[in-house]
Amino acid sequence: MVCRKNNIMKIAIIGAGYVGLVTGACFSEFGFDVTCIDKEPEKIARIKANDMPIFEPGLDDLVAKNVSAGRLHFTTKLSETVASADVVFIAVGTPSRRGEDAADMAFVHAAAGDIAKAITGFTVIVTKSTVPVGTARVLKDIIIKANPNADFEIASNPEFLREGCAVTDFLTPDRVVVGTEAKRAEEKLSALYQPLSQRNIPIVFTSLESAEVIKYAANAYLAMRIGFINELSDFCDTVGADISTVATGMGLDHRIGLHYLQPGPGFGGSCFPKDTRALAQTAKAVGTPTRIIEAVIQSNEDRKTSLAQRVISRCGGTVTGKKFGILGVAFKADTDDMREAPALTLIPALQKAGAEIVAYDPVAQSTAAPMFENIEWADDAYSLAQDCDGVIVLTEWNTFRGLDLHRLAEAMKTPVMFDFRNIYAGNDIVNTAFTYHSVGRADIIGQG
Q1: Does pTM surpass 0.85?
Q2: Which residues are catalytic?
Q3: In sequence order, which ranges of 336-404 are alpha helices (DSSP H)?
């Protein structure tokens, strides 16, 4: 391993967002010298003050520990940081293009051009952002055009971080995928991931294209499982089966497994919606359409829009003048991410139907508030329930699982619960006053 100073490999990460910040903190935990770069001075200032711009369990402690140890740094100065780096990761956003399904590569391409102008010695340039197949070769051409004398190799190293578990996922992953066609790049990245390979975590080296496809394929497959179990839960509703038992009976087959077989209000967040759309669009562009993924995308959209109608139908066909409390607005627990959250569809639809909305989320409230109009925000679940005609569980926060359901029901005008995450079992409900509606399971009329 050839390093530029003190025999410690220096890493630069372009982008201090979700992926870049977690990646930087974790690489510094491995003992490397890491600098995260971002163009937003306010964001860098917040991080330096240990005020994380995202909610991710354990991240603030990890950042503080490694900043204190002198291994983790934050700056807006790209040129001088990249010039001294052995490995540069591109971890900028790749959102869907406005009005399109394709990934917007403007930030990635701009980062490659900036890196090309700054590198001074042999550098491995790695895409950590989720990018369409063929991107690594496009970046290589951009860098050569901007700096014909640049001494570099390109690699693809997709991330597989679940929001809410990202630190754990990085430090103890199922596998690491690296795409490269150069021995020099493989050696550098092998050294970076040696703390994992020493613990027998597989490091999969493959081609640039295969690495790029693996990321999209993994997310699309997981999204497909969610779409499947959600549609199956509707089927169970109709025929009188119990989706929880069905999922368990399926998942105990070792060929299937239990992961991602929990029905809910549809997938959201920063990855599955964007990545499934991008994969479908790319596949169409090259003449091999992915019909299954296209169906998953449509099924998920239908799932979100059907939730309000489900509430309305269970309330006798109208919700005019009724008040509903929304328990959780983040797209999933342990994050404040509101991107494509089901709440963004459900709440406006209920309001359009004449309902009044009060909401509570233990973490995402400040992030979510500007995204909604004419809703009240509660301080906790019990104040939220006051005089409500129904409560709707949209996010599976653990704190909701331990609520005093008798107290919650007593606060309500009409004790009706729509549990779109199936966080409660029948035994939790039967001795309460709730009329309980979940997904893929029989309704319960409480006896309390």
Answers
A1: yes
A2: 271
A3: 343-352, 365-368, 381-385, 398-401
